[in-house]
Structures are given as C-alpha cells and as structure tokens.
Please model this.
Amino acid sequence: MTSQRTRNRLIQRLREEGIESEQVLDVMASTPRHLFLDEALSVRAYEDTSLPIGYGQTISQPYIVARMTELLLSRAKSLHRVLEVGTGSGYQTAILARLVDQLYSVERIGPLLDKARRRLRELELYNVEVKLSSGGFGWPEKGPFDAILAAAAPASIPAELKQQLAPNGVLVIPVGSDSQYLHLVTRREDSDQFDVERLEAVRFVPLLGGVVR
Model:
C-alpha cells in the first residue's frame, strides 16, 4: 500500500480533480505520506482523505495539500521566505520545503511538533525551521513573508498574519466556523491594503490559541 504504483494512482486522481501544477504533483508523488502517520493508518496513506494524527488533529487530504500549495506557487511573486501555520504531522511542511527557499513553521502541540521535526530530519529537509507557538500570531520575528499557508481555520482572518505579509505577499487560509471557505489574501505593493478572494468550501480543524506541551 506504500508502493510507487499506489502513490501514482493518487497523483492521477489529483489530476482528475483539477490539480494542474506538475511541480506540485511531482513533489507529492515522491513524498512518502505513510511516514507521517502512525503505523496502523499507514495502509491508508495514499487515499485522498484526511486522517487522524492524535490530539484532535488531522493530516490534511492530499487534494487540499495540493490545492493550497498550487495556489501559493501560482500567486506568490516570490517564495524565498514562507510561513506555515500548523505543522501538524509535518506532511504539508515536507511538500512546501521542497518548493520554497526557506520555510518557517509553527505548531501549538508539542508532541506533534517533536514527531514532525524528526520526520523532516529523516527526509533531510534542512531549509525548515520550526517553533512551538500559538499559530494565530505567526512568527513575526522571521517575517515579512512572501507567502503564508495556514492549515487550521480561524473564525476570521487574523490581522497578525496579514501584517506579516511582505508587499505582494499572499496568505492562503481556511476561514469560518460552521461553514468554512478557503481564502486567498494578497497584500498590495507598498500598501497596508489587502485584496481577499473567497474560494471553495473546505473543512479544517479550528485554529486555536495556547500551547500544549
């Protein structure tokens, strides 16, 4: 169930669902998603579905990972410094790390972050810096960022994340409580003005505050 043929079937499904970026598809085809799951769930790693990773969190559905990553690649002017909010299992982190120059990732649940850090090291992804932190506040000391990707849904777009965008920077984030939609926020050049696009309906865990050690 972790063979390359199994992975290729997933990639074909992503194509059929509308993912067009060959760069994103190539990275996903060569990234071992089963390594980011507990052994009991690894046989389901290449299904196009979200799966539990403990602490009430999930590893995102591959389509959503591909869709959000494709949005960043197509809409950001640069991908030199990128922030991920919600490291989780580290799977989305591993995908992004192979497509950007420097990635910063914050996670509020310590045991998940420890596992993710080990997995990223095993995959020799050394352009990632991670931090235990309440995600809604981002990582302002490392900004501004060319792009920010959030893997948890706040009720509204956090002002702190918008302010950490560089000029022309983009934020891809799910927003909402009962119903959620993916949003793309772009900071206008030389301005504190932001353009916001509402995209498709999604389902993510809520973006919570506080740190779990």
Notes: Residues 53-202 form a domain with the Rossmann fold fold (CATH 3.40.50.150). The beta strands are 51-54, 57-59, 81-85, 102-107, 128-132, 145-150, 165-176, 180-187, 194-202. Helices lie at 4-16, 22-29, 62-75, 91-97, 110-122, 159-163. The chain has a mean pLDDT of 95.
